[in-house]
Amino acid sequence: MNAAVLNFPTDASAWTSVCAVDAIVPNTGVCALVASRHVAVFRVGEDQFFAIDNIDPKSGASVLSRGLVGNLGDQIVVASPLYKNHFDLRTGACLESPEHSVRAHEVRVVDGQVLVSGN
User: Fold this and answer.
1) DSSP label at 10?
2) Which domain does 73 fall in, by range?
3) pLDDT per residue over 74-91, tens digit each?
4) Which of 67, 61, 17, 60 is CA-nearest to residue 42?
5) Whole-structure pTM over 0.90, yes or no?
6) In this structure, how many other beta carbons lie within 10 angstroms of the beta carbon of residue 12?
7) Which of 12, 49, 95, 113 is the most exposed place for a label (fewest CB within 10 A)?
8) In this model, does residue 28 exceed pLDDT 60?
9) Opening angle at CA 10, ends 7 and 14, nearest 5
């Protein structure tokens, strides 16, 4: 199973259980509160999971989890539902305006649960 990042913190308290794997429909996202941050968690295909900050930096609205998931070349992205900026799900980089990039979070799946790192 692929995850956004392969190096995971060993501190179990740094991880937040977001939901069951089956609660995220493939190629969509959900919003969760992780370490007091709004985080968008995406399921791409059947077994890839990514997480980025959910706050659209251009508008300040918590909406990125509602964006459209797709590809631009080799990059897996989400398009903001407000301004249509594309965010790389692996890195959080905003492709149109790098100054509007968001933080990417580590994700892993354990016993059918999607976990996101708060670090």
Assistant:
1) S
2) 2-7+14-117
3) 999 999 999 999 999 999
4) 67
5) no
6) 7
7) 12
8) yes
9) 100
